[in-house]
Amino acid sequence: MRLQTRIKEPDFTLCDQFLFSEKCGCLDLAEKPSTFESQEYGSLIESTTTTSQFLIRFLQLDLVKPVTFEICTTKPIIQLIFLMERFDNQMKHQIREIKEGTSVCPISLNASTAECLAVSMTEKHFCSFLETINWDKKEAFSVMQASRTTNGLAEQCLSTSPEILNAIRAICTCDRKGSFKRLYMEAKVTELLLLQLEQYQKSATLGVKFSKTDIEKMHEARSLIIKNLTTPCSLIDLAKRVGTNEFKLKKQFKALFGTTVFGYLNEIKMNKAKQILQEGNLNVTEVAEQLGYKTSSHFVTAFKRYFGYSPGSVLKVFSAMLLYIVEVIGNFTAEDIVLITLS
From CA 257, how far away is CA 161, in angstroms rounded? Predict the structure, then answer.
């Protein structure tokens, strides 16, 4: 099949590729950057990764004027769309079906700089995935229809959960090469699709409809949670600060983000802790203090409950990698590494 994406005005082609051919080998991986610059419209940088199953595109937009994307495909495709923070000042995602032929997608931003991850796949591949979770296509899109909000630009979109955000970051920062990168990217895209469908199903079950004001309040609550990781607000205080009540906060937050307020707080803290530990600059006690835990034992228990392994094991992996690198370089001894790790 052929897929072409271009900026309708001023007629700039971003993507024009033949994709998902049965002749393509399973180890195929192609990467291609594309840059659009215009004094009138601004700039757009697109990084494209193509495998035998997916077309993965990461876009960075710095626009001074709205643009319209035109998508032309010779066969129906399914797209997973993930809009980052700068789109309408919210993080949102959706699954959409693009029919054979030409369709348009206007981009109008409240802020000039934004990022977007778009993953395309054949309808056949999408339906085969649905079969593994005992859904058919009709049922899946019925669930997505029931999950829609009523907020203009946000229609058909759900708010991005911490799990989805972590998977997006893993895709956008992947530095593997060759077949290792292909396998990793395909695994992460499959994870994203699973998380999306799961959130659609949960939202449809809750049956909560939102106004634009409701959505803005929940996103404000999310921002306050992230800003106050070490000294989190109580539910009552958080509800007051965003101008709602505790009942609506709990119900609407879970419907939008797929988890409770404290569940969201825990996910953010745990993933931040893992990131800090992987950097190797702080020990377990220091990470616990930085994230506001009263004792390191409370932190260790929470970390192990969330990930299934202890925070110390993350440091051990980092230490082993550091030991290997230094032994290869030959500038330090094993004793030096121990001292560096414990310092």
Answer: 5
